[in-house]
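Design request, tokens follow.
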């Protein structure tokens, strides 16, 4: 996906940061694993306090989701 991002209107870096990290489906609770058959990895979006805000299928979608909600995503390994 080739999408322009307007850096002049970027969210405030101090209060809107979220963290994107890969999550192995095997490490999720059984009820969540049942919802994604055949998938081995998802990407989680976490708030600064560590609260999981979302689980999505790929990294690009996680970043896009964060930006659409006026959040500044940062990758965590």
């Amino acid at each position: 996906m080739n999408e322009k991002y307007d850096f002049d209107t970027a969210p405030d870096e101090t209060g809107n940061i979220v963290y994107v990290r890969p999550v192995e489906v095997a490490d999720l609770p059984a009820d969540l694993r049942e919802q994604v058959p055949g998938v081995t990895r998802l990407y989680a979006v976490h708030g600064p306090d560590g609260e999981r805000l979302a689980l999505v299928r790929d990294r690009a979608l996680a970043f896009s989701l964060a930006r659409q909600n006026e959040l500044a995503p940062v990758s965590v390994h």
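Comment from the thread starter after seeing the answer: thanks! The chain has two helices and four strands.
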